[in-house]
Amino acid sequence: MTDKRALSSSEVATLWMTYQQKTMLQRILEYFIEKAENEESKRILLYTHTSVKEYVERITSLFEDEGCVVPAGFTEEDVNTGVPNLFDHKFDIMFLRQLKAISMGLHTLHVNMSYRHDLISLFKELTEFTQNVYEKCMDYLREKDVLPGSPAVTLPKTIEFAQSPNYMAGFHIFSDKRTLNTVEVAYLYFGIESNTLGMQMMTGFAQAATEPEVKKYFIRGKELSKKIVSDYSHVLMQSDIHAPSTSGAKATDSTISPFSDKLMMYCTSLFTNFGLGSNALGTAFSLRSDLPVKLAATAKEILAYGHDGGKIMAKNGWLEQPPAMEDRNKLFK
């Protein structure tokens, strides 16, 4: 079915956001493909790059067919493939897996924000493609034994219900904190895992950044990720649960950047926003009253960090503005 309706504001927004993300991924994959450590990882990276390129071309055509300017996004000028490795083995697939986790949420949301059949189909395709790449990354990392799973648990044999408000205890100084439940562990574990990777990404970006202000910003991001890992690990240890650890996926000692400061800042912004969203989910589904307090405090720090990053991007002319709504005030002058 052909839908000739003009793009709505939400559809323009979702296409614009997707174009930004996919052109960034194109550039990063071009670097990763050149540095791939084996044929298996290279196949995953090449498959992803080929598909992403096709989706970028489709979105470009959509903009052009609607008479809309094509966003700047990220170009070949934002990547330099002929430089030493900024990250060691397995970082490429670990990074791609994390980015696909972000994309799965965004594409599903964008399906719900679309009204035209062609755009609904596009985001459904993107969702399926993203899930496919995520699974390939998972299989690869588990096979290489570099992706720790969440803790094992004794499976319940009976259904249980909370018997008193004490189940929510955890904040009051005189209350005994109950052991974490599996839902709470899941969100804490996910936060530790993603921030461990983020800490290494920030380390590499800080070493390679050319602008002093940007370098300081990435160092601050590294320390924030380290603090989150430490805080969440402490909560797990209080219930005798060990935090995840992984080999590889670390920054090297290279100081030559494969990416522009603009691209690294946008990538950091994307991961920061994802961290804020997953933190909010953890807050919503944590029933022990001390956890939402801790997660809310973390969210405040993440939000402040992301806001300062936006100011740096705007200051340096790296913050491409989303399409604006028509200024309705002008209509009534």
Computed CA radius of gyration, to the nearest angstrom: 22 Å
How many β-strand runs? 0
Q: CATH class of the largest domain, anyone? A: Mainly Alpha
**Total helical elements:** 9
Strand fraction equals under 5%
Q: Enter the CATH topology name of the largest domain.
A: Ferritin
End-to-end separation in angstroms reads 41 Å
For the largest beta-sheet, the strand count, sense and barrel status come to:
none
CATH homologous group name of the largest domain = Ferritin, core subunit, four-helix bundle
Please write the string of helix (H) and strand (E) elements.
Answer: HHHHHHHHH
Q: Give me the secondary-structure category.
A: mainly alpha
**Residue runs with pLDDT of under 50 for 5 or more positions:** 327-333
Overall average pLDDT: 89
Account of the protein in words:
The chain is 64% helix and 0% strand. It is mainly α. α2 packs antiparallel against α4, α5 (182-208) packs antiparallel against α6 and α7 runs antiparallel to α8 (290-315). The protein is globular.
Briefly characterize the structure.
With about 325 residues, the protein is mainly α. It has 9 helices and no strands. The relative contact order is 0.13.
Please render the helix and strand layout as text.
Blueprint: H1 9-35, H2 39-65, H3 91-112, H4 117-143, H5 182-208, H6 212-238, H7 261-285, H8 290-315, H9 328-331
Helix pairs in contact: 1-2, 2-4, 3-4, 5-6, 5-7, 6-8, 7-8
Please supply descriptive tags for the structure shown above.
single chain; 333 residues; mainly alpha; Ferritin; 2 domains; 9 helices; 0% strand
